[in-house]
Amino acid sequence: LRTHLGHIHKHQHQTTAINLNPESQGMHLETRLEQLDSAIKMELWQEAFKAVEDIHGLIQLSKKSPKPSLMANYYQKLGLVFWKSGNGLFHASTLHRLYILSREQRKNLSADELQKMASRVLCATLAVPIPASRNTIDQLLETNEATMEKKRRLATLLMLNNAPTRQSLIKDFVKFNIIHYVHPEIQNLFKYLEEEFHPLGLYDRVKASIEFISNNEELGQYIPALEEIIITRVLKQVSQVYQTIAFSRLADLIPFASKFRLERVIVDAAKTLELQVRIDHRSKSLSFGTDLMVAQKEDVPEGPYIQSMPSEGIRNQLISMARALHQAIERIEPKDRKVQRHEMQVQIANSYRMTAKKEHQRILQRRQIIKDRKEQLEHLNDQREREEQEQFEEHLKAYELEMDRLEREAKERERLWKMIEQLKMTDIGAKVLQNLDEEDFATLDVENIMAKQVEQLEKEKEELIDRIKNQEKEFDYFARAKRLEEIPLLTKQYEQEKKVAREFFELQEAKKVGYRLYKVYTMMIL
């Protein structure tokens, strides 16, 4: 989606450009907001920042101004991303934008909500680290194109033309009178840290406000940063009053900081030239303003200020003396030196005019080369992202296929075990599976089980046929022997039955003859 949207945005001025309708833009925006919420819940902050960039690109791509509720949600999520990345400056700037948007657009904003938002803006603004005190030359030497581009890119996400600074945030804080709406317990915190000069009693003045912030769930996250600011303020104010101070005395002024933490802040302050300080571990003391060769800065120091360090006063006197000597040299300088310098200036100007066009062309070519390389890098990055996406999809597909295969095998094994249990309950199955162990069951499949079952049935069938044949043979032998034994008995029985039948026949014949004689005799009598 990000690649497709980038191509659409890149080629939007061409004749074949794709014109996204408001519905498509709204769906893209909802998708990115959902992705941002998911990334924040999963604490994937790099993905969250990419989603923020996509949302900003969609907002810029849309022709209509976004809804205030959408912008408020956008600023809330962006502020969280900045805070997790450790960028307190842009986190505070995001809260400033959210506060101004809520005051201007939300008509139903309650006093309690306004007070919470203002208090959070105050804590976030004061928690921004104090910038390094650099003179103009140091700023030019340390400011490179990559750093400026990063700041411009982050400022663009906040709809700002220029990158914010701690000083600009404080000016906006005063301009919009935000201090009037914060909690009464912390209203004096801004005055103590940014306006008044109290090196020996600063902690006692801000102690109540710090305790209130630490007990507040929404503001408690700013306590470590605020403590760093308090330590730095005490150091800078003490450096304007004392030339030497015992380390134990300084630790008493900041009781919440351990000695290790205090020494780390002192070293960081000396490294960034916020103040000139040296730690003497033998005497366990700190010395301020001992280096006369290093300029702290060229304008008034940041924060509460009462006077310069002694080293700054001496250095300013040396600068004034150097300027006076330079003016004296210019007054007593011979005219031929002035003519020679003028001729050199003319020669340099003529040389520049002769090479200006060529130099201009070289700069244009260099700009074109940089642009081409940038496009090439974007193309390579897009190609690399596509390849990585394809590889990820291939791995995901292979993983899904492997999981499907394992799931099928698991289901097949489960079905096989159920079949084995059912077979064990039958006589044939028990005979088939009685000689198999767990390893054999693991290697068997349905076809092997069916083949073994058929083989067992065939074997039992053959045994039954052989047993029947043997029984038929035994029965045949038995029947033949029985017939042989029956023949004499049957012959004897036949003779007896024949004799009895003859006697019965003769008796019946005699009865018939007697009956007939009786019938004739009776007729003769009648």
TrEMBL record:
Keyword Calcium: no
Cellular component aspect of the GO annotation: eukaryotic translation initiation factor 3 complex, eIF3e; eukaryotic translation initiation factor 3 complex, eIF3m; multi-eIF complex
Domain of life where this protein originates: Eukaryota
Coiled-coil features, chain-numbered ranges: none
GO biological process: formation of cytoplasmic translation initiation complex; translation reinitiation
MF GO annotations: mRNA binding; translation initiation factor activity
TM region positions: none
Keyword match RNA-binding: yes
Cited Gene3D superfamilies: 1.25.40.860, UVR domain
Pfam families linked: eIF3a_PCI_TPR-like (PF22591), PCI (PF01399)
Keywords: Cytoplasm, Initiation factor, Protein biosynthesis, RNA-binding
Record localization: Cytoplasm
Chief subcellular location: cytoplasm
PANTHER family: EUKARYOTIC TRANSLATION INITIATION FACTOR 3 SUBUNIT A, EUKARYOTIC TRANSLATION INITIATION FACTOR 3, THETA SUBUNIT
Official protein name in the record: Eukaryotic translation initiation factor 3 subunit A
Source organism of the structure: Magallana gigas
